[in-house]
Amino acid sequence: MQKTNGITILGLGPGDPKLLTRQAWDLLENATEIYLRTNQHPSVTGLPKSLRVHSFDEIYEETEEFENVYSRIVEKVLELGKRPEGMIYAVPGHPFVGEATSPEITRRAKELGIPINIVEGLSFIEPVCSALNTDPLPHTSVVDALELALAHHPPFPPDAPALIAQIYSPTVAAEVKIALMSVYPDEFSVKLVHAAGTHEVLVETLPLHAIDHSEHIGLHTSLYLPALAENSSFEAFQELIAHLRAPEGCPWDREQTHQSLRPNLLEETYETLAAIDANNPQAMVEEFGDLLLQIVLHSQIASEYGEFKMKDILAGIHTKLVNRHPHVFEDVDLDDAQSVIQNWERLKAHERQVKGDEQKGLLDGIPPALPALGLAELYQKRAARVGFDWPNIEGVLNKIEEEIGEVRQAAQTDERASEIGDLIFALVNLARWQGIDAESALRETNIKFRKRFANIEKGAKDQGKQLSDMSLEEMEALWEQAKGV
Q1: Which positions ≥6 away from 266 have C-beta within 8 Å?
Q2: What per-residue confidence (pLDDT) applies to 302?
């Protein structure tokens, strides 16, 4: 009999015992004992009859969380591996493809000085590709269904295929489809591959929304997700911008700098706001794309200059959002939106202290170049977060009346300008109290005025008159008519 030393991790292949490797079969024929992570695998029936077969299935039955199951299995394997005769631990597929226990056993065994031997096995990927008649290259994503089921958005690019393993129950399939349908259409055609690597292999084509209705879902079911659409990923867009900036790219794009693109960023921002104000989804798609172009272009320029890369932008904002939402990602209880805002300010103050910017004031981080109405509202919001605000809206209304009185009393031009500024600031505060964005409200009024004044001009033209020749009463009459249009 062949004796093992330490821990041998053996891959049982995808299912059919005939797909066991020659190395695995030779070892199994000469072994006396084997420990299976689970005996719920088709190849188990083809193991040599002389083997004493143990499994860790009872741990699955006793433990609710997968993490705890795997932890207990790892500890047991390490314990058995310390024996003079060592142990053989067999797992479905390949020891390092879709197998959580093998990497941890290997890591811990090396720390403990326990010898490790790996016996390769076919993974689930090869027979799934055979069943689909497809090549996973150049970049098919391989995804764990259990991780995807917990996500709100797929963590892989939609312009490439994805192979999602461990769709072992209708419940998992239902949770996976919900995550996928945040990007993919409900009717998107996908393929469920059942029992790949066995004589019972079945490929089922159905719409994404129906995958949890399949009657064939079992322990060896995978989901194949074709590419959604060409050029639909963030990565593809980054490649496009990098290409435009490359020596073989566009002369205009290559010449741009952060400074030369500043007017473009400002213009695209205002065009995006216009699309939002118009509540035009089609225009929003186009304008958000134009705005994204500016961000990615600046990122590419910075990467070429050695300043920063897109990964730094993404990691920075990701870390900031997680840190500023402890009520979501940590055990912090915040009852309402106001509590969230106040905690947000405390966290920002701490960040300033860590960065050595504690001398900066609450309003220092707001760009002074913002439009005046928006700037006033931001100042007021920041001050209100720390309690510097009227206790109720009556105080706001009284302040407006006070400012109107001061405008009436102002004698000099500079004094009137100052008082009118105070009045506008108070009106912005009223808008804030009413949950209204003052900038957007004034923009809507500007649009409304332009339309109505155009109707006055048309009315005058229909009467054969020039506006300059009409009395105020005549124009007022046309204005009232325009208000009804």
Answers
A1: none
A2: 97
For residues 380 and 432, what is the distance between their CA atoms, to the nearest angstrom? 8
Cis peptide before 138 (omega within 30 of 0): yes
Long-range contacts of 107-113 (CB under 8 A, 24+ apart): 108/74, 108/78, 109/6, 109/7, 109/78, 109/81, 112/78, 112/82
End-to-end CA distance of the chain: 96
**Contact of 89 with 105, CB cutoff 8 Å:** yes
Cβ neighbors of 310 (< 8 A, separation 6 or more) are 238, 296, 299, 300, 303
Host H or E run for residue 250: none
Two structure tokens written together for 44? 């188990």
Return the closest-CA partner of residue 424 out of 371, 381, 372, 364.
372
Cα separations in angstroms, 95 against 11, 69, 117, 141: 5, 17, 11, 19
Given a cut of 90, is residue 181 above it in pLDDT?
yes
Between 371 and 99, the higher pLDDT residue: 99
Q: Reduced to 3 states, what is the DSSP secondary structure of residue 364?
A: coil
State the DSSP string of 16-79. -GGGS-HHHHHHHHH-SEEEES-S-SGGGGGS-TT-EEEE-HHHHHH-SSHHHHHHHHHHHHHH
Q: What average pLDDT does the chain have?
A: 91
Apex CA 36: angle with CA 30 and CA 42, to 5°?
90
Extract the runs of DSSP E, i.e. beta strands, from 125-261.
141-144, 162-165, 189-194, 202-207, 221-225
Q: How confident is the model at residue 2 (pLDDT cuts 50, 70, 90)?
A: very low
**Spatial CA neighbour of 402 closest among 369, 432, 430, 375:** 430
Sign, CA dihedral 462-467-468-474, equals: positive
How far is residue 222 from each of residues 140, 157, 211, 247, measured CA to CA in Å? 14, 19, 11, 43
* pLDDT (tens digit per residue) in 150-159: 999 999 999 9
- Cβ(470)–Cβ(452) under 8 Å? no
